[in-house]
Specification:
Layout: E1 6-9, E2 14-17, E3 25-30, H1 41-59, E4 63-68, E5 76-78, E6 82-85, H2 86-94, H3 98-115, H4 131-143, E7 147-150, E8 153-156, H5 172-178, E9 193-198, E10 214-216, H6 218-230, E11 234-240, H7 244-258, E12 265-271, E13 274-276, E14 279-280, H8 291-296, H9 301-309, E15 317-319, H10 321-345, H11 357-368, H12 373-392, H13 398-416, H14 427-445, H15 449-463, E16 465-470, E17 473-478
Bound molecules: zinc ion.
Residues 31, 222, 247 line the site of zinc ion.
Length: 480
């Protein structure tokens, strides 16, 4: 029986008990980056939330499938079918090929993700690899009367989708009244949005379609890719709060227009904005940071990770150098507590006791309560305080230290991933290390010291860890 997880669902406006479509499994789609520039810390706050969500489900025992797309075409400067494609604009300014621009920033994004220890998604589809699916979905919407072609472009007939606005809590009639009428608009109604746009001959990214040469709109890609990879009804969709309207609203309209009107996503989760020094981040104000900017200033990946994680995803995070300083000292405190536990647990250890259980239970309860990171962290700091007090009074037993040490490594760090500096040892690497240690133990029992040394060297060089032989047992730790 898996523990209950509660999620604040934007669609209903309520905190709900998560019920998976398939027992023990969760399928997550997360809107990925538009790869026309380096992603900034505000973007990463939302990607970090998707990482946290996946880790919390894994920790609770679920099998997760996460899809996070790469938008490499079709995202216009304005979300309302206006302006230039963001990637084409960058390509024009830098006089480069737009595909090369997209690939360059995609690679940079993946590097930044690694620095922040964000687990890679199971699928990372690129919009340009799913043009056929986007065309097919558009055709389906035309066939069902939800879309129409005009002059080589295709638009969604928004007013026909009666629940449009349900996610962002906008009323359709208010949206209709407020929609701006554009000059030379070829749409039937101002609220309609583009599924496919006709390309002029000199447009740099274009494909064949039943409506002539053109390129897809931004919203259609997430519908086409999520349907293809997760099915037309899946568990969770995440994004930044700025995605809520119109992007996610349009996704719902496309999904449910095409699938006959049944629900396409059960839970919609949105991450709040981030402010820097109390203000909206902007290049002109000089408070605009990419991950690379912060690394250059001497901050480490795990410190940026901790800083971005430390506030609840549904509250505004006011980011500053002070947030990073605090992150640095919190991590140091956790590492020190972990070191003390490791030290102490080397003693002959006494009867097994469930010292850590109440802390571990509270830690998980907080995480399962709509990813309540501040409460989960409060529990960790209470644990550290209690450990230090016991140590001072000389009451910390080896069994307690051992259980707390394991909690830091296996529970806390499965979620936070900040305990060990830089080098990350994956679960499969850990298994390989343990297998090699067992093999080494056998040859040592046979007094084959040469092979034992060879295996030690192999483990240490291959995984960047060091082995510690003590009182007949071998443990390992990351080389400092
Ligand atoms: Zn999206």
């Amino acid at each position: 029986m898996l523990p209950e997880i509660f999620l604040q669902n934007t669609l209903t406006g309520k905190k709900e008990t998560f019920k998976p479509l398939k027992a023990g499994e969760v399928k997550i789609y997360s809107c990925g980056p538009t790869v026309y520039d380096f992603a900034h810390i505000g973007n990463f706050r939302s990607f970090m939330m998707a990482d946290l969500l996946t880790r919390v489900f894994e920790y609770a025992g679920y099998k997760t499938t996460k899809v996070q797309n790469i938008t490499d075409v079709g995202h216009l400067v304005s979300d309302h079918d206006e302006g230039e494609d963001k990637i084409l604009k960058k390509a024009r300014l830098e006089k480069k090929d737009p595909f090369a621009i997209a690939r360059f920033f995609e690679d940079a994004f993946i590097e930044d993700e690694k620095v922040l220890r964000i687990l890679p998604p199971d699928h990372r589809p690129r919009a340009t690899d799913y043009i056929t699916e986007q065309i097919n979905l558009t055709q389906k919407l035309i066939a069902k009367g939800f879309a129409y072609e005009v002059n080589g472009s295709v638009y969604f007939r928004t007013e026909q989708f009666k629940t449009y606005g349900q996610l962002s809590k906008n009323k359709l009639e208010d949206l209709i009244a407020g929609a701006r009428i554009e000059i030379n608009d070829e749409k039937e109604k101002p609220l309609d949005f583009a599924l496919w746009k006709k390309a002029e001959p000199n447009h740099l990214m274009q494909w064949d379609s039943p409506w002539g040469r053109g390129y897809p709109g931004w919203h259609i890609e997430c519908s086409a890719m999520s349907q293809k990879l997760l099915g037309d009804h899946f568990d969770i969709h995440t994004g930044g709060e700025d995605n809520k309207f119109p992007h996610h609203e349009c996704e719902i309209a496309q999904n449910e227009g095409a699938n006959g009107g049944h629900k396409s996503v059960n839970y919609w989760l949105h991450t709040k904005h981030l402010l820097v020094d109390g203000e909206k981040m902007s290049k002109s104000k000089g408070n605009f940071y990419t991950i690379r900017d912060l690394l250059k200033k001497g901050w480490k990946g795990e410190e940026i990770r901790y800083a971005l994680l430390s506030a609840h995803y549904r509250t505004t995070l006011n980011f500053s150098e002070n947030t990073l300083t605090q992150a640095r000292s919190s991590i140091a405190r956790m590492r020190e507590a972990h070191r003390i536990c490791q030290e102490k647990s080397k003693d002959q250890y006494d009867i097994n006791e469930n010292f850590i259980l109440p802390y571990a239970n509270e830690f998980q309860r907080a995480l399962n309560d709509d990813l309540n990171i501040p409460e989960a962290l409060a529990t960790v700091f209470t644990l550290i305080q209690d450990l230090m007090k016991k140590r001072e009074l000389n009451q910390l037993t080896a069994a307690q230290a051992r259980s707390a040490g394991l909690f830091f490594e296996k529970d806390f760090d499965q979620i936070f991933s900040v305990l060990f500096p830089e080098k990350i040892i994956s679960e499969s690497e850990k298994k390989e290390i343990e297998t090699l240690i067992k093999k080494r133990k056998q040859v040592r029992n046979d007094k084959d010291w040469a092979t034992s040394d060879l295996i030690r060297n192999q483990i240490e060089s291959q995984f960047g860890v060091e082995l510690i032989d003590e009182s007949g047992t071998t443990t390992w730790r990351i080389k400092q």
